[in-house]
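ligand=zinc ion
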Amino acid sequence: MRSMHHWLMLTAAGMLAGAAFADPAPVLRARTPIHIPDVPGFVTLKCDLHIHTVFSDGGVWPSIRAEEAWREGLDAIALTDHLEYQPHAADVATNHNRSFEIAKPAGDELDIIVIRGSEITRGMPPGHINAIFLTNSEALSTTNWHDAIQEAHAQGAFIFWNHPGWDAQQPDGVARWYPEHTELLEAGMLHGVEVVNERSYYPESHAWCAEKHLAMLSNSDIHNPIHLDYDVREGDARPMTLVFARERSADAIKEALFARRTAVLSGDRLIGAEEYLRPIVSASIEVVHGTLNVHGRDRAQAQLTNRSDIPFTLVRRGDVDGFSLPKTLTIPAGKTVLLSVQAKRETPAGRHDLLIPFEVSNALIAPDTRLHLDLPLTVTSAP
Ligand SMILES: [Zn+2]
Ligand SMILES: [Zn+2]
């Protein structure tokens, strides 16, 4: 009996030890928030408004799109399956409303806003046109593309032109504006254009946004599971349309899109009108240690913090009288970096209020124009 008791105790101890050494399951179902400051009067919502599922040529069931977006810290997605291209029709019944209907309850459970859309998929011109905030995608299934867009417009949809420089339709990658687009624009049936699709940036459509008063969009057009195309866990985020909305709701997103309150985030690149980029960048980058004392030609260190999840690179536009400063400075997301300041030999002793003229090399306010950002420093120099 004694040996049996001993054996039981050993076994129990062995099981406990085994439990203690079991590897914990990785926490995959977790949301990683994206920190981008709001702009005055509006919340900054991160949206992907061009997404495919198995209901057209995608490889993913619609409800999975909601959880992908939740994990990545997005606020809203639009499901925009092709109306005219249904390569899975032998296995998945053609029903143009179905991807939205399946994704919507999954989104509701996760507090992800899911928007009903369709991609009107035609040759160029007019190319591929997304209509979102539809009430019935089925009604857009027409022979003539004019009728499809007319129907989307009648449903109150926000309508935008997808990937205008897509190399399958424009082999040189250059986006071209056609009379058909003028016709749609003048009829009030074209409200936006993708400036970024997947990882492609179209400078031509960026310029059109200002010229023709179109909202700028940046979308993934994802067909695969998101992890197949983006290294999400390593911080490789899909492109996003930043929407500056009065509140976090579908109605507020729709209002903001028609009011053209959007910007583009693609990789580290932030693209948009200065009125939106300036408050975002100003709220992100802060001089946290900007009052310095320098002795002779010793170096002093200011400190700059980046409160956002967008890394910013600053390039100095000009010299600052009396002081040597670095030409470029990168401030990674969420980090504080040093900015080295050195008085020149001829610099008089005393207090100097400096404004360092930078441009933000990854913040584009026009195709070839970067946002200017002047940062203040107060330097007291002693001999
Ligand atoms: Zn397309
Ligand atoms: Zn598409």
